[in-house]
Amino acid sequence: MIKLLRVDDRLIHGAVGFSWTKQLSINMIILANDAIAKDDFQKMTLDIAKPRGTKLVCESVEKAKALIRTHLKSSTNVMVITNNIPDAADILTSIPEIGSLNLGGIRKNAETKENLIGAIAVSQKDIELCNKLVSDGFEVELRLIPDGKKTYFKDYKLQ
């Protein structure tokens, strides 16, 4: 079962590796990223950062979508992580059964237009993608940690 689709530009770190996985009883993390899927050193580093007993699979976005589909109704509790909103939007629109997107840590960069709660910054393209997801009926929520207050992208009314 897909428990969470999350965007976090740090990928696996304390909040992801321990808070989210513990709260959601995650057995597998699917990291969907084209560059990391080809980078053995980065995959090894991320594997070290994950909690013991949790399987980590790093795949290109396309291969990750195929893997995600196999876990929609499985007994394995899966968290899918991307490091950017375009990849997450691609996954969500390709696999609408997931239903929602969690925006986690997204640091400011040269393209940042708006800084949302805490460490969540978005570009104009990100805003357009999130607005499209919301208009298509998907939930887009902002929350850094599972115990944090759940806020919704639609409430920011960004254009």
Automatic annotation (TrEMBL):
It comes from the Bacteria. The keyword Zinc does not apply. Pfam families: PTSIIB_sorb. Gene3D superfamilies: Phosphotransferase system, sorbose subfamily IIB component. One of its GO terms (cellular component) is cytoplasm. InterPro entries: PTS_IIB_sorbose-sp, PTS_IIB_sorbose-sp_sf. This is PTS mannose/fructose/sorbose transporter subunit IIB. Residues 1-159 form the PTS EIIB type-4 domain. GO terms for molecular function: kinase activity; protein-N(PI)-phosphohistidine-sugar phosphotransferase activity. One of its GO terms (biological process) is phosphoenolpyruvate-dependent sugar phosphotransferase system. Keywords: Cytoplasm, Kinase, Phosphotransferase system, Sugar transport, Transferase, Transport. It is found in: Cytoplasm.
